[in-house]
Amino acid sequence: ELDGDRAEMHLDLKYGNGTVPELAEFFGIDAESRNGRAEGRADIRFPLSSNALSRLNGRVNLTISDGRVMQTKLFAGLTQLLAEKVPGIGTVVNQTDCTGEGEIIDGVLHVTNLQIEGTVFSIVASGTCNLVTGELDFLCRLTFMRSENLVGKVLSPIFWTVSKMLMEVKVGGTLQAPEWNYLGLFDRIQGK
Predict the structure, then answer these.
(1) 0.90 surpassed by pTM
(2) Rounded mean pLDDT, 3-19
(3) Largest distance between two CA atoms of the chain
(4) Which residues touch 165 (CB under 8 Å, ≥6 apart)?
(5) What residues contact residue 178 under an 8 Å CB cut-off, 6+ apart?
(6) Could you tell me the CA-to-CA distances from 94 to 28, 101, 122, 181 in Å, in that order?
(7) Dihedrals phi, psi of 130, to nearest 5 degrees
(8) Rounded to an integer, what distance in angstroms lies between the CA atom of residue 192 and that of residue 190?
(9) What is residue 190's predicted lDDT score, i.e. its pLDDT?
(10) What pLDDT score does 94 carry?
């Protein structure tokens, strides 16, 4: 007789030459008429029992190119928050490329290196996403320019302290209803 708690499925998945809408449709997510290229890899393990998602473990990585990531519903709160703090920023929210990697431990995705890059500013983030409940707990830091272009390489070290102290945002809520909260200098002093 099969013991679903002891029997384990191990999958090594690779996704290549795909598009953002195709990948979004596969996961049941609205791509919001976005385009872009996507590729990724997942090496996951889970038991054959009924609570497989909460006991999912493995490693994942994803790369999106030309995907206008910042214009999706997930990032709408950040775009609104930036527009309130930085006049005119709404016209330059054209972050297109995204790379991320993480580890899944008991159904919680731990992202250690998420980079969303655009021409004017980029975002570096880390945090967790509970795959069962959709709960988010991320810290995002805005940086200037792309990390790989010359201007970005020059400005990034210069503005690192400014971006660390004045341009961090805490993301909570869920995937369906993310909550973006600006962490100002006084929040940092108070340990929030």
Answers:
(1) no
(2) 87
(3) 65
(4) 185, 188
(5) 74, 77, 136, 171, 172
(6) 24, 22, 10, 21
(7) -75, 115
(8) 6
(9) 59
(10) 59
